[in-house]
Amino acid sequence: MPLEDDKAIRTVLKSARTIAVVGASDKPWRDSNSIVSFLIQHGYTVFPVNPNHSEILGLPCYPDLRAIPKLIDIVDVFRTPEAVPAIVEEAIAVKAKGIWLQLGVIHQDAARKAESHGLQVVMNHCIAVDHRRLFLQ
After folding, report:
1. Is the pLDDT of residue 22 over 70?
2. What does the alpha-carbon distance between residue 137 and residue 131 come to, in Å, rounded to a whole number?
């Protein structure tokens, strides 16, 4: 079951240092762009992932999770639910610790697969909203 309780989500956010944002955008009005900025401002090392860009917010942008040169704590997904199974496969392959599916991104089968491989899963939550709610009150 994806993590739902505040204590578990707080633990995931507190223990994470590296976050890959899959579907990151270079457009400032897109949520995925503002989330990259938010995560940087809150001390995370962020790896934007989008094969259509070489750089986002001054950071190198990677075509996929395998291209990232460090271990990933959280894979934050800004893609359609149909894209999630392939992202989960990649996250498993790179030994990521967790998958975070943003608001509206729900894929039960992929979540079960991630969990069966030891990844923590948060689904249908905004990482910035939860971070603000749990740490900035």
Report:
1. yes
2. 10
The Cα 54–Cα 115 span in angstroms is 31
Neighbouring C-alpha atoms within 13 Å toward the C-beta of 121: 25
Residues in the chain: 137
Contact by Cβ (8 Å): 91, 65: yes
Residues 6+ apart with CB under 8 A from 109: 85
88-108 pLDDT, tens digit each = 999 999 999 999 999 999 999
Can you read off the two tokens belonging to residue 123? 């689904």
Q: Tokens 């975070």 appear where?
A: 100
Question: What's the CA dihedral at 86, 102, 81, 25 to 10 degrees?
Answer: -70
- The CATH fold assigned to 6-135 is Rossmann fold (3.40.50)
List 18's β-bridge partners, or say none: 45
- Cα separation, 2 vs 60, whole angstroms: 30
Its pTM stands at 0.95
